[in-house]
Amino acid sequence: QVQLVASGGGLVQPGGSLRLSCKASGRILSINDMAWYRQAPGKQRELVASITSSSSTVYASSVKGRFTISRDNAKNTTYLQMNNLKPEDTAVYYCNADLNGDTGTGYRLRTNYWGQGTQVTVSS
């Protein structure tokens, strides 16, 4: 049973910071890409940041310079450090991981998983 658990959301004032965490657990051989998405009310889900297994990163233009994605491969965890938060950052943030699962048969099973959403609210 592979599971992604996200945490770290909350209420913060504009200009404040939050760090989101997402830990993958279960029968995992390796994790390829990990990413954070967000969805604001009435809006489409959008990619915020992604990170490859070799720690190459991609950011949405709206968060570049303010957010930092990282990963700890030993812990199967990705982090999203969010600084200088703005009201426009208010959304439910979702963790995503593309990983290779252990089938127990000598063959991998590449699967994409989503974590539960964590609410980030930026307001005065």
Percent range of helical residues: under 10%
The best one-word shape is elongated
Structural class: mainly beta
Could you list the spans in which at least 5 consecutive residues all have pLDDT below 50? none
Radius of gyration: 15 Å
**Strand residues, percent:** over 45%
Helix and strand element order: EEEEEEEEEEE
Number of strands: 11
Largest sheet: 7 strands, mixed
- What does the average pLDDT come to? 96
Note the gap between the termini: 40 Å
Summed up, the helix count is: 0
Based on the model shown, name its key terms:
single chain; 124 residues; mainly beta; 7-stranded mixed β-sheet; 4-stranded antiparallel β-sheet; elongated
What would you note in describing this structure?
This protein is mostly beta strands. It is 0% helix and 59% strand. It contains no helices and eleven strands. The strands form two sheets. Strands 2, 4, 5, 6, 9, 10 and 11 form a seven-stranded mixed beta sheet that branches. Strands 1-3-8-7 form a four-stranded antiparallel beta sheet, with no helix packed on it. The termini are far apart.
Q: Which secondary structure elements does this structure contain, and how are they paired or packed?
A:
Layout: E1 3-7, E2 10-12, E3 18-25, E4 28-39, E5 46-51, E6 57-59, E7 67-72, E8 77-82, E9 91-102, E10 108-114, E11 118-122
Parallel strand pairs: 2-11
Antiparallel strand pairs: 1-3, 3-8, 4-5, 4-9, 5-6, 7-8, 9-10, 9-11
